[in-house]
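Q: I'm writing up a methods section and want to include an example of the input and output format. Could you take the sequence below and give the corresponding predicted C-alpha cells, formatted cleanly so I can copy it straight into the document?
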Amino acid sequence: MHYADYKTILSAKNGMNLYRGCTHGCIYCDSRSKCYQMGHEFEDIEVKRNAAKILETQLARKRAPCMISTGAMCDPYIPLEDELRLTRECNTLIYRYGFGLAILTKSARIMRDMDIFKAINAKTKCVVQITLTTYDEDLCKIIEPNVSTTAERFAVLEAMRDEGIPTVVWLDPILPFINDTEENLRGILDYCIKAKVRGIVCFAMGTTMREGSREYFYEKLDEHFPWVKQQYIRTFGNSYECRSPNNHRLMEIFREVCRKHKILSKIDDVFGYIHKFETSEKQLSFF
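A: Here is the clean output for your methods example:
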C-alpha cells in the first residue's frame, strides 16, 4: 500500500475510484491492462490521500444532487478497506449531502455498510451492484481466488432485497471454453430471479483482453487450464473482444429469461436506471 496525491475524486460523469490496484486476484481483470498507465505493481494498492476531504469539497460545489457511482478500476471493498474505512467515509458523505449511490463490488464486505445504504435509499436511491461470473463454487475460487464466492455474493443480494435496497448484477465476464455453458448461465440467472434484481448488465458472452491483462490471464490459464490457452490463441489471436462461440445461443437464453421475469436487460435501460437520481418523501434519521 502507498499514498498518492490527487486533486479530484469525482470524474466528469460522477464516478469515483478511491483506490488504484486490487488484491482480489481475478484472472481476467482488465484493470491490469497497460493502457491504464498504472505506475506501480497492481497488488500494491494506491490510496488517494485525503480522498474524503476532496470528495466533500466536490459534493458541496455541485448545484444539484445526482447519483455517485464507484468505478470498475478497483473494488471499493478490498481487504484494505477494513483498516482504512475510506469507502465507508465517502458513502457517509454521499448520504449527508443528499446524493444517491450506485456501488459495485464482488465482496460480501459490503454488508458492513448496510446502515448507510438504507439511509441513502430512504432519502433518494442506493443501487448495490454485484458481479457474478460463475455458478460453480469451485471454479469461482480459481478464477476469482481472493474474493467472496458466488454463493456469498448471492447472500448479499438476498440481504439487500430483504432491506429494500435495489440491486443490479454484472454478468461479466463469461470466459470462452471455461464457463460459457448453459448450465452456468441458468444457475446465475436463477440467483438473479430469487434475489429479485432490477437489472443485469451483460454486453455479450465473452471477455476482453489487452496488453498487460492478456499476459496475466494466459499465465493463469497455464496454471489452472493448460489445455485452454491454445484455444484462445487459435480462436482470438490478439483481438480485444473474445466472444464465446456459444454467444448467440446464450444471449437468447439470457434475454428470454430476463423478459419472462421482468428484469432489465438492455444496456441502456439498465444504465438508465442506475444513473437516474430519484428522491423519496421517506426520511431516516442517521447518526
